[in-house]
Amino acid sequence: MQAKGNAMRKLKQNKEPIRLRAKKLKDGSQSLYLDYYSGGVRQYEFLKLYLVPERSGVEKDKNAETLRTANAYKAQKIVELQNGEFGFSNARLRSQMNFVDYMRSLSQKAKERGTSTYQTYDNGINHFIKYAGDQVEIGSIDKEFCMGFVSYLKRAKTLPPKREDRQPIKKKNFTPKPLSPHTQYDYFGIFNAALNKAVRDDIIKYNPVTKMEPKDKPAKPASNRCYLTMPEVRALAAVVPQNEYERAVLPAFLFSCFCGLRLGDIEALTWGKIKTMSDGTRQIDLTQIKTKEKLYLPLSENALKVMPERGKSKDADTVFRLPKRCMIQKYLRKMVERAGIDKPITFHCARHTFATLDLAYGADLYTVSKLLGHKRVTTTQVYAKIVDESKRKAVDLIPAL
Taking the model in full, what pTM does it have? Predict the structure, then answer.
């Protein structure tokens, strides 16, 4: 009975247009469902999520995660409801929505779209909870609250990594470090973007961040894009993979160095998206996950050489069978070290490498912009500046008279 009470107490809600409720089942578990009115008729929507009897800490943690998922779904439903899909409109109740649930619903949507931003979203949400707790009404957030979050981020330290069920991963060598200016900027950006979305969803009338002075917000750090030179690419290509993870990661990274695709697009790349043209050349036809823009990308001989053999793979089969992203970074770092490269290389650096190499070897800015799938040439100009800096360093290597 005590276990049941612990879970049910978490279901208590303020007056909201949708209630999260639980129905007891014969096996002692509880089925979660949404209770709301649509067109004056009471509706029930079962979520296929279940609370289990809490006999140990494992079941308690599992129930907590289940409730978080259910509340995130409820937050999405409230937005749909208040937008008029169910003929309901009440600004006061909308403003009482839990902001953490709302941010999680946005993170879930990003995950469903296949973008990698949900990972940054989840990290930002964890820091928001560290600052203000997990029960914050959207309507209660004002300028002072936003200023306080900025102050928190300035003194905050990294949190232990968590599994998909948000339980901490025990790492012996984990040492909390202050958040970098770039991370502070990203996490505040997530917070600000969620408030902007709440305005567009008619949940709040305005975003309180707009009341802040520019100097009071985290400043965007200067771009410092890490990339490999051609000799470094050759050195990395000469590394002998030592296990199945490295055998999967190395060709995918080199492929990105020679075509510029983002990791998400490489993970989703199937054989059917690689077309053979009438002149025998091959190109990739895909819709970019991040921008949703079509991209037609010719493949160079270098890119084709590092691709795996197709064999009997079908059009729907992925070209590169990569491990989880944490494993990708771990084994990429090991190979970079063995190649004698002293740079903080991540998988995304392959994209930077492609851009800088193309510009360094004579490609024009507009063409490189199109190859990268950028909407604006100005986005690509940062690579031109990198190449100019490299030329300046090369000139300065000449000794003085």
Answer: 0.57
Find the domain containing 316 and state its range: 230-394
Neighbours of 286 (CB within 10 A): 19
Same domain (yes/no): 44, 31: yes
17: alpha, beta or left? (left if phi > 0; alpha if psi -120 to 50): alpha
How many separate domains does the chain show? 3
Q: Are 151 and 299 within one domain?
A: no
Mean pLDDT by 10 residues, the chain (401 residues): 48 62 87 79 81 83 83 77 53 75 82 63 90 91 95 91 51 77 91 92 90 90 80 95 94 94 92 92 89 88 93 92 88 95 91 88 82 78 69 59 56
* Local structure of 275: helix, strand or coil: strand
Q: Are residues 110 and 204 in the same domain?
A: yes
Return d(Cα 373, Cα 261) in angstroms, integer: 9
Residues 6+ apart with CB under 8 A from 124: 103, 186, 187, 190, 191
